[in-house]
Amino acid sequence: MNATPLSARATNAVALLKESSPETLEGFLKLSEIFESTTLDPHSRETVILTVAAHNRCGLCVDMHETKLAALGPAPAPERLDAVRRFTLQALATTGAVSDEELAAFQSHGYTRRNALEVVLGIGTYTVSTFANRLNRAD
Predict the structure, then answer these.
(1) Cα 19 from chain centre
(2) What single Pfam family name could you report for this chain, choosing any that match (predicted)?
């Protein structure tokens, strides 16, 4: 566990990325804004982000998005979040080539094909962030 306050860690990571590659920061911020506008509910979006962060081993991102997910309060349907987490991991493991059965399992929890593609957007967006943080040693 990093002893530096989370807000300071996040501020430092942004400053470092802005200094190192303002284009990468700008790209991430634009993608993040688009991902936030998707039809996925806030709990599902944060679950996708947290899953990518944990998969990519970005400690800063895990800490930040655990905090954000907790601030949303209890999930209305925890089994839905487990379904989006599993689907995110399957999409990562198969580079998007999930099976029809995996897609159907995701959709059986009330998600749509559109939501599946929004998960892909979240994976791409937060892969940029987690990779940049790790490369810059900001995690």
Answers:
(1) 23
(2) CMD
